[in-house]
Amino acid sequence: MITLMPPGVEVAEAHGDLPGARLLGAEAEAVMRSPAARRLEFATVRHCARTALGRLGVPPVPIPRGAAGAPQWPTGVVGSMTHCPGYRAAVAARAGTYLSLGIDAELHRPLPEGSLRLIASAAERRHLAELGGRDPGVHWDALLFAVKESVYKAWYPLGGTVLGFADAEVAFDPGAGAFRAVLPDHAPMAFEGRWRVVDGMVRVATVVPFLSQ
Fold first, then answer.
1. Within a domain: residue 16?
2. What is the extent of the structural domain holding 196?
3. Domain co-membership, 118 together with 28
4. Is-contact 204 152, C-beta < 8 A?
5. Where would a tag sit more exposed on the chain, N or C end, judged by fewer CB atoms within 10 A?
C-alpha cells in the first residue's frame, strides 16, 4: 500500500493478525459477540491505524465504528482501513493535507459467477472486456470491486451517505496503474486513485486532494 500513497500519508500494514493487538474503549462493543478470529482481525487493523496515527504524532486513541460502520477517526485526521485474508492495513493523514482517503485490498481472483453484473454497468463491463483482451493476467472484475470499495470509503466522510455499486462509474488507465471514478449523481464529483496487483492481492488507494492541490 505504501507505494500507492503520496507524501503526507502514513501507512501501516500487517500480513496476518497480531496476537498482541488490543481494542480500546468503545471498539470492543462492535465485536463483543463476534468469533475470536473476527475480534483479532478487528484489533489488528486498529493496531495498524494507531501505528499510522503515531507516525503523525497522534497518541493512541479508540477508533470506534460509526452508525454506517465507518471508522471514527480523531479530530484533525483523515484515514481509511482495509482487511482481506492475510492482510490488514490502515492509512492516515492530517486533515489539512488531504480531504479524504479510501483504501481496499482484495484477493486477486475472479469474482463469483454472476457477480460482475451486480457491481458494474454495461459500459464498465465493456471496458473490462476490452482490458481483459489486452491484459488477461489481471482479474479486472476483482479490481473493479476493490476500486469501488475504496471510492465509497473516501466518499462517506464527505457526503455522509452510503453509495451503491451503481453510484460510481470507473475507468482504468492500465499503463499508469491508475483509475478515475465519476459519481453521476454528484457531478462533477470524480475521484482518482492508483492500484497494484502484488502478492496475490489487488491493492487500491483513493486520495482526495483539496481543490487547490
1. yes
2. 104-208
3. no
4. no
5. C
Helix, strand, coil % in the chain, rounded to nearest 5: 35, 25, 40
User: According to the annotation, is 83 in a ligand binding site?
Assistant: yes
- Cell numbers at residue 32, please? 463483543
CA distance 34 to 178: 36
Average pLDDT value for residue range 31-57: 96
Residue 107 annotated as part of some ligand binding site: no
By the 10 Å C-beta count (0-12 exposed, 13-18 middle, 19+ buried), 204 is classed as: buried
For residue range 125-150, list pLDDT tens digits in order. Answer: 999 999 999 999 999 999 999 999 99
Last residue of a domain, one of 69, 98, 127: 98
187 carries a ligand binding annotation: no
213 domain-assigned = no
The domain that holds 26 is classified in CATH as 3.90.470.20
Question: Are 124 and 49 contained in the same domain?
Answer: no
199 belongs to an annotated ligand binding site: no
- Annotated binding-site residue? 109: no
Q: pLDDT confidence of 210, banded at 50, 70, 90?
A: confident
Total number of domains in the chain: 2
**Is there a binding annotation on residue 149?**
yes
Q: What SS3 class is residue 179?
A: strand
**Rounded Cα distance, 127 and 120, in Å:** 10
Segment holding 195, helix H or strand E: strand 190-198
